[in-house]
Each structure stands twice: as structure tokens, then as C-alpha cells.
Amino acid sequence: MRTSNFLLATLKETPADAEIISHQLMLRAGLIRKVAAGIYNWLPVGLRVVRKVEAVVREEMDATGAQEMLMPAVQPAELWEESGRWEMYGGELLRMQDRHQRDFCFGPTHEEIITSLVRNEVRSYKQLPMNFYQIQTKFRDERRPRFGVMRAREFVMKDAYSFHLDQDSLQQTYDVMFEAYSRVFSRLGLGFRAVEADTGSIGGNASHEFHVLADSGEDAIAICDKYDYASNVELAEALAVGGDRPAPSAELELIDTPGQHTIAAIGEFLNIDVETTIKTLLVKAAEDSGHSAIALVLRGDHQLNELKAEKHPLVHAPLTWLSDEEIHAAVGCGPGSIGTVNLDIPVIADRSAANLADYVCGANQEEKHYIGVNWERDCPEPEVFDLRSVIEGDICARAELPADDDSTLTIKRGIEVGHIFQLGTKYSEAMNATCLDNNGKAATMPMGCYGIGITRIVAAAIEQNHDDRGIIWPANMAPFDVVITPVGYHKSEQVKQHCDALYEQLLAQGVEVLLDDRKERPGIMFADADLIGIPHRIVIGDKSLANSQFEYKNRGAADSQDIQADSAVEFLAGQLNLGQ
RNA sequence: CGGGGUGUAGCGCAGUCUGGUAGCGCAUCUGGUUUGGGACCAGAGGGUCGGGGGUUCGAAUCCCUCCACCCCGACCA
Q1: Nearest 5°: phi and psi at A458?
Q2: Residue A533: is its pLDDT beyond 70?
Q3: Which nucleotides of B are covered by protein (CB under 7 A)?
């Protein structure tokens, strides 16, 4: 490609609405342009990168035996009503009507379509297992699109769906996909981590997320290298802090605490460690529980994990906080003064809170707290449940006791670029997708599903690979392999001849090469090449041609080197690992 | 959806408080001088000041209203 015939939409200044580095560089390097919130044009440079990611994903999917197909973006409501998700999915589902007022949606995912297809086409267990994938545009009407294509509403996803006769077969395919995903992200040059994940709204049994590690990531991941453990923080099991609960050693005492309504304020007021306090949170009870409110008790410095709390049978899902008025009605005081003593509603305590002795809590009276509180002696033993989010320094749930310093968790940020699920029979049952087993009986097919965010990977790669000049593409993702930067293309005949000749030779070798034949000053061409992040650069000018040499520079290297002009193609072939 | 903020040329911004000819830098076009890391000089083009309504002799500026976009919190590839 010659730049004279190619849209290099580079920007010198950073557009004001781009916050994170990948979004800024994608705009500046001319990969994308915004059309509406979370909806983007992919310009020629950007699309080349997308195609590179797709190519690696496609190769690895094909290698697993998965079959590529293409499903429609627009889907009829009937299928979603069958699965129950027309009601359940909520505002993220973009719904529309055709000219006959029939309901449709723009597909955010394709379980309904594939299940409908497979139940019609697959008759016998002999055809199983089968795994179908597609690379296709999805639409999810996100509450809050942000960070460019990182959280877009319209995006390109690789989604795969597998069908099985039994759980063993599903597990096998799941394991194969796990390995394939690891190869995809390795080949794309990403620093990633597979983590145990919640199965979320899609539901099902086992699930792993693949995260690209980056400070700008929206997810928190708990990691323990010693036990090769990594889990989304929302799922990571939180052990009790400290050993068994000590025996009570202090007397229960009611004290005045005027104006103290937060844990931090109480800690300061009493000059005590907040780790000796507990907080009591009131939430709505599950409808069939026979209660109206449930008290969730945590140590003062710990954070409630709402996903965990929702899993308790007494707690209403989704988790719903009581209003201040409801709290007053339930316990007779405001939210800053609730405690465990004389509390007439069911109490669920986090493991660490249940292990406390002689603790401080609200007195269920305004402006008063209890100190020296002990379970069993001053209030009933609570039901113990894992309610809190893990924090840095917690002991890994896999650790063998007694734990050492290497058994603690570190918290890192991650960008979710892949997610694999064992769906079980959730969809095949709802949509009656069966095949005949070896007894001639209809068997409901367990399913797996496997997603990769193609366009998100482009942004995630930039988060990990850039410097102050621009993007530094991993080799397999670069929009071009080589850029030829002439110095004096329009002035020096020998420069032009050498540039054109090298360009043609590289094209003939199948190298993706960009010849910058614009009538610009070298500084502009260097800056653009660095910004776009092309891995290999050849500079051709009269200066080095005097010695029959070109100049070579790798985008990630600090310095350039001179190479012989007549062996430049071989040199570059070596750099590009051609033929391997 | 709640809270905060911004909309003025392709991009980055000033002007709004205190109403009075719509500006600056970059980019673009023309001519010239330059030419190894975002040159310089001279000239030119480009705007329903987010939309609608109102106040006023006069509105980018004041008032009402709608919209779009960005950031912070509950969800997801």
C-alpha cells in the first residue's frame, strides 16, 4: 500500500473525550472514529488490525475442529420468548419492530439462534459433539459505554457454541477451548491470565474469564501465584481472618457516641482499630423467607460482596438495600446506629465478623454504641456465610494451613477479552433441543459457549504495548509488517527507484508493506510510522545510499542499524520469520 | 438509571460572568523558501456558536425547553 492512496487519518492532538491511552491512540493513529456513543467507524488501518486478530482466532478455532458459520444479527422475538430471555434480558437488548410490527432484536449473543438450528439439524448422538463458531457484530445497549471500543455497544465478537451427549463430553470440549484460548492470546502477544469467574446472567456450571492485565482494566482479579490461583474478585472465596474466636474478655457496655454514624468516625471517636468493629447492613429478604429484612454483618473494614450475598437463600435477589425509612421501621434507628444486640431480624455474619470477640457495634438507638460485644453471650450466634470481597493480603482459599506469606492474594486489574462457560442444559431444555442417544431415547444436549471480544482485544493490546510516541504492535496484530520511509522520494531519482524496487519485492514475498510516498517532510513520516506502530521501518535516503545501504529500525528498539541495500529483502524476511 | 461536567471551523481551545461586526493554534488549499524527527513566509477557504422557543433595538452570551457527548457509581466480550 502506498500512503498516497491510503487514508492515514492521524491526529497530532488528542481528542478531548478520550480518557484512556488505548482510546487516545486509536483515535490519533486513525484506527477508529466515533459515530455515536459506543458506536464506531473502523478506518482502513484499524480494520487491518481487526482482521489480524480474527485470523489468529479463526486458525485456532479451526484447529479445535469447530465449524465456522454465520448467524443473523437481527433475531425474531419468538426464539427469545422460548428461552425466557425476552422478559429477562432487560434494557441491554436492543429491540425493534419490522414494518408488520413484529418484534425483533439485534443480537447481543446467539444461544437462541444456534439452539434452534441444532435442534432441527442434529438427530443422533453419533453426530456429537459439535462446536459451531462465528465472528460477527453484536449489539448490547450498555448502560454506560466508555473507553472507546473497550466497552462499545456495537462490537465484533467470536462466539462459539458446543453441543454434547453428556457432561464428560462437554468437559472435554471445554478443556480444548481453554487451551485454544490460551494459544490465541499468547500468539497475539498479550500478557493474560485465565481466572475463575461467576457464571453471571447467562447461567450454567463452570466458567473461566481470560483477562489482559492492565491498570485501566474494569475488573479486579485476585491472584496467588503459589497455588496458581486466579479468580475474579466478585467470586474469590474470602476466608476468616485470624484464628478461632477468642473467649469474651470485656464487659458489655452502652456508651454515648453523639454524631458518630460511620465506621471511620467511630474508630476515630473511640480511638480504636476499625478491625474491632462490625457494621450491620439491612437488605430486603427473599419473598418466600417469611421475613421482611435481613441483617448482613461484616467487620468494619470489609466490603460487602453483593453477588455473594444474593446467593444466600434468605436474601432477595437482586440485592436490594432498605431505605432509611424502612430501616427506622425495622430497628428504630438510622442506618449509622444498627448493631447485633437486641436485633429482632435474621442475622447473617461474614466469617471474619463471626470470629470477632469484644467488638464494637451500633446499639439500635440513635447516638449510642455498644462496646465489648460478644456473640452468644450478648446476641445469638449468627449464621456464618462468605459475604465479603477479598482484599490484598487475604489468605488464598486454596492455601494449605498454616499459611505463609506466599499464600496471600494480590489484586490486579484486568480487561476481560474472553469468557468460556459450561451452560449445561439451560437453553437446550428451555428450547427442547434433544437428540437420540444409543437407546433411541431423546436426550437433552448439554451445551458450552465460548466468547472472545475481537475488537476489545485491539484496545487491550494497545493498553499493554505503547510508548510516548504511539502504539507498538505485537507482530501478529500489526496493520502492516514494514513501512518504507523515503527521504527525498520526490527529489532524488535513486531514492525513488530503491524505494519502489524494495516495495515491489516485499509485496511479491507476501509482506504487508506501506510505502510512505507522500510529499511530506521526514519528521512527519517518522512520527506517523511510530504513532501507527508498524514493527519494522526501512529508511531510504541519499545519505545511506552513498554506501549502498538502507537504515533499519524496529519500532520497539532504541536505535537503528544500517543494512546492505541488496540484501534488504533477505534481512527483512529474517526479521519477519518468513517461512516459519 | 442516579450524581457531576461539556457542547463555538476537521482537531485542540478562548470568548459566555458584564448582550454590541465570531476569534486563536493546528490541520486544509495556493505561491515561494526549505527538507534525516511533527519547518518558515505570504495569502485563501472553511461556522445554522448542539436544536427549538422566549426576552431585547440587538443573543454564542440572559431565560425556558429538548438533544448529544464525556466522567464517577450498580453490569458484561
Answers
A1: -60, -45
A2: yes
A3: 1-2, 11-13, 25-27, 34-39, 68-77
Is A318's CB less than 7 Å from nucleic acid strand B? yes
What b/e readout covers A303-338, taking b as 16+ CB neighbours within 10 angstroms?
A: ebbbbbbeebebbbeebeebeeeebeebbebebbbb
Count of alpha carbons within 13 angstroms of residue A15, beta-carbon side: 20
**Helix, coil or strand: residue A204:** coil
**A74 Cβ contacts chain B strand, under 7 Å:** no
CA distance A551 to A65: 44
Is the Cβ atom of A217 within 7 Å of strand B at any atom? no
Share of chain A above pLDDT 70, in %: 98
Which nucleotide is closest, CA of A27 to its C1'? B11
Is A578 a residue whose pLDDT tops 90? Answer: no
User: Which pLDDT band holds residue A260 (cuts at 50, 70, 90)?
Assistant: confident
Q: Which nucleotide is nearest to A495 (CA to C1')?
A: B36
Report how far residue A294's alpha carbon sits from residue A346's, in angstroms, rounded to the nearest whole number. 5
User: Any atom of strand B under 7 A from CB of A243?
Assistant: no
The contacts of residue A265 (CB under 8 Å, 6+ apart) are A259
Neighbours of A282 (CB within 10 A): 21
- pLDDT digit string, tens, across residues A157-192: 999 999 999 999 999 999 999 999 999 999 999 999
pLDDT number for residue A241: 85
A275 pLDDT above the threshold of 80: yes
ipTM over 0.90: yes
DSSP state of A61: H
Q: Which residues contact A222 (CB under 8 A, 6 or more apart)?
A: A229, A230, A231, A232, A233, A236, A390, A394, A396, A409, A410, A411
